[in-house]
Amino acid sequence: MRVTGKGLIDRSTPVSFTFDGRRYDGFAGDSVASALLANDVRLMARSFKYHRPRGVMGAGSEEANALITVGRGSEQDPNVRATVQEVFQELEVFSQNRFPSLEWDLLALNDLAAPFLGAGFYYKTFMWPKSFWERVYEPVIRRAAGLGALSGQGNTDRYEKAFAFCDLLVIGAGPAGLSAARAAARAGADVILADEDSLMGGRLNSETHEIDGMPGAEWAAQAVAELAQMDNVHLMPRTTVTGAYDQGTFGALERVAHHRPRGQAPRECFWRIVAQRSVLATGAIERPVAFRNNDRPGIMTAGAVRSYLNRYGVAPGRATTIFANNDDAHRTARDLVEAGMHVAAVIDSRLEAPDGQGYPVIKGAQVCDTAGRKGLESVTYRATSGEEKIKTDCLAMSGGWNPSVHLSCHMNGRPVWDEAVQAFLPAPGAVPGMRMAGACNGVFSTHGAFVQGAEAAVAALSDLGITTEVGETPEAEDAPYRLQPLWAVPGKGRAWLDFQNDVTVKDVTLAATENFRSVEHMKRYTTQGMAPDQGRNSNVAALAVLADATGRGIAETGTTTFRPPFSPVPVAAMGAGAQGRGFAPERFTTSHKASVERGAPMIEAGLWYRPSYFPAPGETSWRQSCDREVNMVRSAVGVCDVSTLGKIDIQGEDAPAFLDLVYTNMFSTLKVGRTRYGLMLREDGHVMDDGTTARLGQTHYVMTTTTAAAGPVMRHLEYVHQCLRSEWDVRLASVTEQWAQFAVAGPKSRELLNSILDETIDGERWPFMACGAVRVQGVEGRLFRISFSGEHAYEVAVPARYGDSLFRLLLARAGALGGGPYGMEALNVLRIEKGFITHSEIHGRVTADDIGMGRMVSAKKDCIGKTMSERPGLSGPEREQLVGLKPVGTVRQLTAGAHLFNAGDPAERAYGQGYVTSVGFSPTLESYLALAFLKNGRARHGEEIRMVDQLRGITARCEVCHPVFHDPEGEKTRG
Amino acid sequence: MRITCPICGERDRREFYYVGDAVLLERPDPEAGEAAWDDYLHNRDNPAGDTRDLWSHEGGCGAWVVVTRNTVTHEVLATELASDVAADLREARP
């Protein structure tokens, strides 16, 4: 019910929203929880396991009970805390984990079965019979327990990620955080102040304290306003700092648009903030007390009741009872009475409790039971004189406060138990550069928070060489924190510790009885602390109960590990932008547009896109196009963009020696104007990459790598230079994207080139493997007479800006000669016909000897990988060696990935003779051809072998042959 | 994680490519024998404490960097250009 004259909500802006389809009214500034309470709705959720009716327990992000689903369809967002969701016009929210409705939930039967559903239930039940695992246990039992559900539709929302840098990150904008941010900002430091609430000020917005003679909320608003107009301050409301990482890096989730109707803005933004120093001012979370039936709607923390009253102008009940073990909770009674509300009683577990100010205080008593199925109706307390029942519809409980130490533990820090405040405090220095201030550091008075905040900021700035002073501390309450520990009220029945995962005191003691005595074991056995709130409300109380059950102290029992994130972060926000085309960068060649215009399907080659084939009119399958393109290259001329191959420019006096070191064969002896095929090993003696390298000048080479290995080879060359031969005069530059390079292959390749080159070429001046500068239509280019097809072929390169026009020109001229473009499919067939290898063959586990290139490892010099390639076992007949395969049986199809077996042997792993790496249909030889690795393969040419593809169910008889199927003497290439 | 490149300054670790132990700078002589090559290529310590490894500032200037860091605290204690470290190793060689 609304309380007149109270609250920071904007009563001039009414909003209406729906909950489970019913319309409710609230005001701007309300949360869903406060607006529902204002409408006297107490039942908001069903619990995880027992489907118990639940209301709201807190007023902040730690809320354990009131989880709701926001929106519907693809916009559906489950497990949103009703205390965090701000209301706006036309907001639609739904209760979850109930059937058919929140009021009448059939699965509440679980509550009656509670005696069988205790700790370790899954472990004990999901054992036998085996046939029940998938048919009964999984679908039925597990479905009964749960949270909200996703819609199953694709998420159409937009998310964002961003980066920020600052001198000082202040986490939390309560009194300590505001004090720290103000001190640092006034000293001129770059400050980021992040707070998960929509309204900065922390508890100042929920209490009635006066600061400097004005209401706390007003003081906070003024402090925030001062910071807002400073250029060196970045205020980040609705932003939860979720993790502390190495070297001052923090993750933070900003809820950008959850508080307004959908528009252009992204829903959420995941920030990576790099801060020189940080101040942890995350405050504390009030802890509940465990007693029988302490989970009914209407039972909440004492601080939450003050938040609803003072911040939202809502009284959660008409007759409120307070149950506490500390002085702080008495404020709730005072605030209620001042607001004209009825306080039934304050039940204080301490005999020394303070007296009431207009309300009765029952000292030395404990609440031991409650009644009211869908909302609290009465509580029973036990005093020395016996048990008494009080009629009440709201119970405000407080077992003290747990500092929010979580972020201080993200880098392996362990919080330290403090007897005086009966709480875990952050270990100083647990996160380098982080200082703690205020309630999260065990300082619970407002005055103390102001002082510590400013001191932390001054110390942080001093680290950065900025000298400043603490300044004047605002005048604020400085009440001592007085409490007497009380975790669980003894007695029968279920007393909840972890409300979100339905874990009770009994479960924890049962775990201890069954010898799960370590806090980590207890957690996993009972699932305490494993719900979305990650035990923020329950961890300390649970381990206090465990400590008691195992006869140890709390400090000795220790805590479980707090890991990021502090509160749930949607993967959609962390990976923002990385869906669909955003998943990986796309690299396009200069011929991309012209290829697409010709209808070529583009396929991925690493990040590159390359044409698969160029369909001609009338062709209906890729094979038709591929066969035609192969024949075209073999009989006329074909053009193919090969710009994606890595190109590395290598210059310097020591470039020849450098290439001798990285290649197995000699490059220092290569003549200027010539190109040579080179083989590169890893230091462990296996093949790394291959390609041609051209010597353009005495101290100038240009190396080509395979498309796939362009990056790794570049990195490897830089390693060899910088780490092994830094004294050498050699410089490396990747020029892959600077040059557009096209293969021109086929008997008419020279004719085609002569139609576009400024100066014609002939076989004498341009023999096989020649290279040099040419002019192409007036443009300085490069020509290489190299061949990956086995034909008389060239590669012509021009600066990338001329790539598109050269490609179009080549195609136009080729067309007149009966030629045209060819794609990856034809390129692959052409090279298989010639037995040329790709990374299908040099896949990382083969040696130079395996691919028949053992003699390319020069005996005259050292090279990377040479020593280790000479190890026994890396060459010889026991290894699988490169061979060709041709089908000879009735099955003509060969498949890559198939395995090889001797005829008569079973097709089982133990009998494996090798495997197929590349397959293509050769229109030239009118047969499928394959490259394969076969044990002692070079000595077995002419033998028959059985190819078995278990995956596709294909078995074929093959003849083992030399891997070069076409023109083995290379006459066409050289001619 | 942040690493200070000796050329570019402090950068996010995603600009760097991690390679492995900085022992990779000490390539043995071809005739050094099996044990030396085995150590160079395969045998690595796995210290709980300070370690020196090689990173490549691939998303930046391309420099190879020797990073001294602590595997327990994740502190980055020092960064040096690999080429400088290699030069020192050469000078120290007999």
TrEMBL record, chain A:
Pfam families per the UniProt record, alphabetical: FAD_oxidored, Fer2_4, GCV_T, GCV_T_C, SO_alpha_A3
A biological-process GO annotation: tetrahydrofolate metabolic process
Keywords noted in UniProt: Oxidoreductase
An annotated Gene Ontology molecular function: sarcosine oxidase activity
Domain GCVT N-terminal: from-to ranges: 592-861
Location of the SoxA A3 domain: 492-577
Keyword Electron transport: no
Residue ranges annotated for the Aminomethyltransferase C-terminal domain, each copy included: 881-967
Family: Belongs to the GcvT family.
NCBIfam families to which the protein is assigned, alphabetical: soxA
Designated name of the protein: Sarcosine oxidase subunit alpha
UniProtKB/TrEMBL annotation, chain B:
Gene3D superfamilies: Folate-binding superfamily
GO terms assigned for molecular function: sarcosine oxidase activity
BP GO terms, sorted: tetrahydrofolate metabolic process
Matches recorded under InterPro entries: SoxD, SoxD_sf
Superkingdom classification of source: Bacteria
Protein name, UniProt field: Sarcosine oxidase subunit delta
